[in-house]
Amino acid sequence: MVKLNKIYTRTGDKGSAGLVDGSRVSKASARMAAIGNVDEANAAVGVASAAIGDDFLSAQLRRIQNELFDLGADIATPGEVEGALRIVESQVERLEHEIDAMNASLEPLQSFILPGGSPGVAALHLGRTIVRRAERSAVALAETATVNAHALAYLNRLSDHLFVAARYLAAKQGGDILWQPGATR
What is the pTM assigned to this prediction? Predict the structure, then answer.
């Protein structure tokens, strides 16, 4: 368990950040960009959870928030560190099962969806786009450093999960808002 008695340490005042293995990297590094984007995704999932008020979806989103902290720790632990917290395949598979369960009650897509509607649906779509950015950052890091393949798969699946969750919630609230190509010409 993490215990923080002091919030500021001054160790990052010159632009570096500490990693789980004790090493330090620039706050502008690809690793810190990925960690920061995962953190932002976690906050966006929290906003979505607060906005929807649906116990079924909120429970899933709270579990996802915990896993996003795990994922941040995974990315913040370079190399092979014994006992490191890593995303595992079963977490990706659980997302897939949840996607399939929500998607089973939805009509097939007939058009692209406008990311809006209720505050909860809009927040889920915003979370999805932030997760996509986190995924791009993690993929960029993986081009120069070793990144857990399950962490990359988790981010990919999570954006799908949030998309389907937005559709699932929208269906309860009157349906998706569909894109109408060229409607304002």
Answer: 0.91
Would residue 53 be called left, alpha or beta, if left means φ above 0 and alpha means ψ between -120 and 50 degrees? left
Could you list the residue range(s) of the whole structural domain that residue 133 is in? Answer: 25-78+85-103+113-172
Q: How far apart are CA 125 and CA 116, in angstroms?
A: 8
Does residue 48 come out as left (phi exceeding 0), alpha (psi in the -120 to 50 range) or beta? alpha
Dist. CA 160–CA 48, nearest whole Å: 15
CATH number of the domain that residue 126 is part of: 1.20.1200.10
pLDDT value at residue 110 = 86
At 21, list the tokens. Answer: 């293995």
Burial class (CB in 10 A: 0-12, 13-18, 19+), 142: middle
Amino acid identity at 67: E
Please compute, for residue 148, the number of CA atoms within 13 A of its CA located in the half-sphere on the CB side: 24
d(CA 26, CA 94): 34
